[in-house]
Structure formats: C-alpha cells, structure tokens
Write a structure and sequence with these properties.
172 residues; alpha+beta; tt1808, chain A; six-stranded mixed β-sheet; two-stranded antiparallel sheet; 5 helices
C-alpha cells in the first residue's frame, strides 16, 4: 500500500520548483536525532525548527525557498524578526541540516548547500544516513566526519556531539 500525500512539499531554486523527497524511516530517525541534539544543546542559544520554509530569495533577490530538514536560528536573528516574518524567515538559518534520501538529485543538493552559505548559513550539515557520514560545509570548505567522530566548531561552542548519536536509531 502506498502512502497518501495531500500536498507535496515543494522547494524553489531560482524560481524552479523541486519536490522534496518523501522521507523514509532512516531519514526520520536521523532528522529526529538532529532535532533532539540541536534542541538540547542549543537551548538558550536559538530555535531548532524542523521543516521550516526559509525565504532565501529575500537575501539574494531570487525566487528561492528551501525547507531544510532541520533549521537552527540564533536568538539574535529570531528576535530581530517581526512576529509575522517568523513563519517563513527571510533568510537562511544559521545551521541547516539536509538529510539525503535515496534517488535525490545530487546536483540540486550541491546547489542548495552553496545557496544556504551564500544567504547567511554558517554551517550546512549534509547527512548521508546510508554511509553514516556527515559532510559539514562552511565558507571555508567541507569536512567529512564518520560515525565514530566527534563534531565541534568554535563558532558554536555549545554544539559538540558524537556522530554516533545521530546514527544510533538506524540499528533499531
């Protein structure tokens, strides 16, 4: 039996629509782990929001809207937004988490990472549940971490975690 989906989530890159992949269990497990991590570790530093529509085109003048699997927005940026703009922030989150799904467009994923960084994101986690690695992108480039590694970044001193925590539910 196939799942019934009322409204597919659509993202836009330069006005071109891209339907988000329908998440499966592995995607959901990793997304849940990131929500728990960012919520727990970032409490007091910002807001952790899954599936938030972000109007990146407001920054660069394009018709670009992304819906990161998990977004983290600092309190400073969040509090500066008028309440009516908080439903769809007019910028990239400070931290964007994109979790790979089977069959997704690799070229689109690379374009999304670049656009996140160009419109205000400081970190983009490109998570590959199948390989159990995270490609961490920032303005300086990319570093790849495996499930036995520990993540830390001086820009976010509160954000330190073992990657094994992100992938732990994949074995259940």
């Amino acid at each position: 039996m196939q799942a019934i989906i009322d409204k597919p989530v659509v993202e836009y890159l330069d006005g071109r629509p891209y339907r988000k992949m329908s998440p499966k269990a592995a995607h959901a497990f990793v997304q849940g782990a990131f929500v728990r991590l960012l919520y727990r570790l970032g409490s007091g530093a910002g807001k952790c929001l899954p599936e938030l529509h972000c109007l990146l085109g407001s920054v660069d003048g394009t018709r670009t809207v992304f819906v990161p699997d998990v977004a983290f927005i600092s309190n400073e940026r969040w509090d500066a937004l008028p309440r009516e703009r908080r439903q769809e922030p007019p910028f990239a989150p400070d931290i964007a988490v994109e979790i790979r799904s089977p069959g997704e467009n690799a070229r689109l994923r690379r374009a999304k990472v670049a656009r996140y960084l160009a419109t205000g994101a400081q970190l983009v986690f490109d998570v590959d549940p199948k390989a159990r690695v995270i490609h961490v992108h920032d303005a300086g480039g990319v570093r790849t971490l495996a499930q036995h590694d520990r993540f830390s970044d001086p820009r976010f001193p509160w954000l330190e975690f073992d990657l094994a925590e992100v992938f732990a539910d994949l074995d259940s």
